[in-house]
Design goal:
heterodimer; A: mainly alpha; B: 287 residues
Chain lengths: 317, 287
Amino acid sequence: MTEDMVQFIARRLAISIVVMFGTVLLAFFLLSLAPGNAAENILRAERLNDPRLGEVEIFMEKHGLNNTMLKQLGQWFYMLGHGNLGTSFRTNEPVTEEFWARFPATFELAAASMVIACLIAIPIGVLSAVKRNSLLDHGSRIFALWGVSMPNFWMGLLLILIFGVKLGWLPTFGYGGMDHLVLPTVTLAIGMSAILIRLQRTSILEVLNANYVRTARAKGLSERVVIGKHAFRNTLIPMVTVIGIQFAHLLAGVVIVEQIFAWPGIGHFLVDSINAQDYPVVQGFVLMIALFFVICNLLVDVLYAYLDPRIRYERGR
Amino acid sequence: MREVGEAMGPIVQALKKNRLAVIGAGILSVLVFIAVFAPYLAPRDPVELNLAERLSSPSWDHLMGTDAVGRDTLSRIIYGTRVSLMIAVVVTMIEVLLGMIVGMTAGYLGKAVDEILMRIVDVLLAFPGIILALALVGMLGPSLTNLVIALAAVGWVRYARIVRGSILSVKEERFVESARAIGCGNLRIATRHILLNIVTPIIVLATLSMGTTIISIAALSFLGLGAQPPMAEWGNMLNEGKPFMEKAPHLMIFPGLMIMITVLAFNFLGDGLRDVMDPRLKEKVEV
């Protein structure tokens, strides 16, 4: 660890802390956006008719909704300090427990999608760079443009229609064995691989012009060794960082896909909570997802600086 | 604005040589035509019920079939074009305006103001866009207006970044210095001399993000958080058609196809614009 590096990491850490603080504030103010009286809305949703006179007041007292904004903000920070994100109106369970109970399912889906996306994208990306302007290259370009333009919820619906409803090969909803994982994973992997293919292609094209590749060729190494050993390995650093950042995006992107496939993850629960006006869950889940995002980005930055000393100084702002 | 027109001239010329950009622009002009003349093009009223003809498959009478309450899918698709394009344009306009105000303030005033505004931008960028938009609509309540507010509240940050960056790079340029030397005020320098230099990156970003905005509108409406029934909106139509997937797959296919075509067209045009406006990038990519 050089001094520059310590400085770079300290700086990134400081910025991340400021961002996290802002995120916490933003999550707090989210709650005040809700129109009307939250207590009344929730009680009405629970009983299916208007709550009785005293009930709203009792509910508000219980959940601290009567306090001033500043006091509520203080309570919010106090709660967070104790790892407490409040209690779900709907299930009466702590929000953090609801989150961690569902996180593994979401993580499983996101991780599986990322693996499939890499398996598709890396070989195709390398090949279309090596055989530039070939049929394969043009095909992969069209696939990539199509992949990013395809709304993932429509992709999911089409896969359900074809493989679930028409052919009956795969289950279309719920959580279970490997077969349940196939359709939602493919749905997410297609869009992700579209991004990664272009990136892998560009990275290879960039290193192919580097001096060490020319040297390797001049030594008379076979094209296979030049690409596989010298070129490909040097594209790994940018690829790993992008994969890290995209993984965080993937965790966020699963929300709608989970809804379509009734996958019991955080996205599915979040949408259900929005529909049920379960505000503490919405607030807490959004905060958790954002914090996860910030931490992912920080880790990627640190990893990047560690792996590639050339970039360190430029990236520090 | 005359200067902007002049600056765009060569760009339009260069764009014409980019095949995908031309295709994108062509598709978009057709879509805009459909949106503008929807009432003349649609064979039926998009919200008119016809319970005698529920879930009928595509036929000469109903080219794209009918939905669960007998509404003509083709007419709804045509009116849906109007909703998607209009909402996307409104969202983008608000984003650009907000982004310019914040970005120019930050870049021009610098120091503490810049630091504070950019940290706010950092916080908003820390949220995955769709999640924050989802939470905002969830809190504000589902409606098309709230959808616009939520998407714009999330999307302006990228413009603010770009505008700030351009201002920082342009601020010390000689032409700005000379303008100041001949006694131009801050506002005049900002509007006449700097604005002109940030128009191109804004146009590129706006075109490229139109596709994402259209997907977000459809996605949130699909979840029931945007356009409300009986409005004809593509995401909404997919949501309503979902339970009848087996009996009436056409309800699933046409709205999705429209979303995909529209997004594809914006991406074609946006990619072309980016290549033309930033030739360095193209050189780097194509080596």
